[in-house]
Amino acid sequence: GMDLHRITLGALIIALGLLVDDAIIAVEMMVVKMEQGWDRVKAASFAWESTAFPMLTGTLVTAVGFLPIGFANSSVGEYAGGIFWVVAIALIASWFVAVIFTPYIGVKLLPNFNHGKHNHDPHAIYETRMYRGLRRVIEWCVRRRGTVVLATIGVFVLSVVGFGHVQQQFFPLSERPELFLQLRLPEGTAFNVTKESVKKAEALLKDDKDIATYTTYVGQGSPRFWLGLNPQLPNEAFSETVIVSKDVAARERIKARLEKAVADGALSEARVRVDRFNFGPPVGFPVQFRVVGPDTTTVRDIAYKVREVMRGNDKVVDPHLDWNEQTPYLKLAVDQDRARALGLTPQDISQSLAMLISGVQVTTLRDGIEKVGVVARAVPSERLDLGRVGDLTIYSRGGVAVPLSQIAKIEYAHEEPILWRRNRDMAITVRADIVDGVQAPDVTNAIWPKLEGIRKSLQPAYRIEIGGAIEESEKGNASINKLFPLMVIGMLTLLMIQLQSFSRLVLVFLTAPLGIVGASLGLNVAGSPFGFVALLGLIALAGMIMRNSVILVDQIETDVEHGLTRREAIVEATVRRARPVVLTALAAILAMIPLSRSAFWGPMAITIMGGLFVATFLTLLFLPGLYALWFRKSLDERGEGVVPAPAQPGQIRHAPPLATAAE
């Protein structure tokens, strides 16, 4: 029941690169057996028997890798949760196709490679120059297993350090052509005054040829037509104009012209914000620091200090407080004794003032088929002039008329128009935009240490918190992290069912972090930021790597059962599984190329491409070395099967013809 949109379409493209993996493995196994002289039907049957269940385990492990985002109870789960469902359904469907339909197609379409020569040497295809070179490399990895494992650990540590040089990001800027232009006048500004400022802003947009259309909302923000749009509270001093440009390049030109006009003094009566839309859940301003405490005045004073520190960072644009200015108000101190002496109650005074200033409907008139209310109130010269409020006449229920100034003292003062609270404490947010080309988490992390002096001087009841993109990112990551145990348990259960050995399970699981090596390298080379979407790619990458490891470990154990020593099985199984492992990795990498140029999917595509490319070769080298190190005491013990003696001394014992095992 999901719609086709950016998230589900991207998930389909991701699934496209993964779902061909099962088909590649099945077809490759058929081709290998046919090259060894088998007929098509027997080769198809063997492909099913030898790969179906390892492929199913690998497929489910890959799908489980996307599980946290599918069940994340957060705004990011709402935004990107469709990835799990689309990828999981596509991968499971691809497994059925690979084990049922692909062998049938192979029987119908694959050529007879050996033209009926059934006595063909089954190992000849692995004796080419390339395979002999690969065999020598793997034999070296087995002999130097300690060196290989330590070297891999060293590369992994360096890649983790390299991640520290990758820019951090929550969600990237949208590629939509819209801009929004916000005007925020001093608090308490009347609607008509705001409207006049809006007319000035629209004059800047009127003859711009890069603009397709624009719509202005005065006194409120635009409707939430975009999931990442931050809703605004109704406010007569606020307006928002949604500008639709002709394309993304035009959007940037419009933004630059508006910012220049504002810098030259246009719309000086308002705080002006020109910005693009962002992918992901709404954040508001990218850099935010929240000052929390019990006293309004103290909190505001601390917030002013935070604002000054933020102004010292040249990456920050227009730091300000979300409480804005205090607004003037009029307060009546009623003389209760005098009011009672005249027969007036506080309710009488309140109702009279409401009628005189705001108006009260006294009757209705019929205008055709409609009824029109008649409102009674004081004339504008009396009700709009605050200096004449004391002259308003108050009537008691007994008909006594008294000037307001005779029964009440009129006081003028200022107050906060809106009080923001957090956990019942006063909370002022100091917020700001950032210049183009930098990431909000990097700017926030640069400012945070400079607030150390302010934080240390605070009383125990007061504190400063980080908000903005970092806070939303932490919320999203927290919702994902809650489901990590479920994901790990699911993966471990699937691996244990397939491998039926704790040792082999640990071996497979230790290959999962190898994706970090290529991901770190790819992100640093491409200059792409690491954000929430890239994190999803890194999680999914672990499942893809373990999928290949499951198939390789299963092949090693099969060869051991057929009579090879573990040393021989490690080498020969890795040689035989190298081609399908590399092909499936390349298929997934090529599927990511269309996404690599997308602002939204690009970091994830680069993470998967770089991680899978490097991890594939590390798996073919590191896993044999790790396997040999783990089973070092039984490397030369032979399995229970029978292997023909080598024809010559020193000849490598190849894996036995698997036809015997299949039969």
TrEMBL record:
Task: Give the record's keywords alphabetically.
Answer: Membrane, Transmembrane, Transmembrane helix
**One term of GO molecular function:** xenobiotic transmembrane transporter activity
Answer yes or no on keyword Transmembrane helix. Answer: yes
State the residue spans of region: Disordered.
642-663
Task: Write down any Gene Ontology CC term.
Answer: plasma membrane
Q: Which domain of life is it from?
A: Bacteria
Q: What is this protein called?
A: Efflux RND transporter permease subunit
**Source organism of the structure:** Candidatus Afipia apatlaquensis
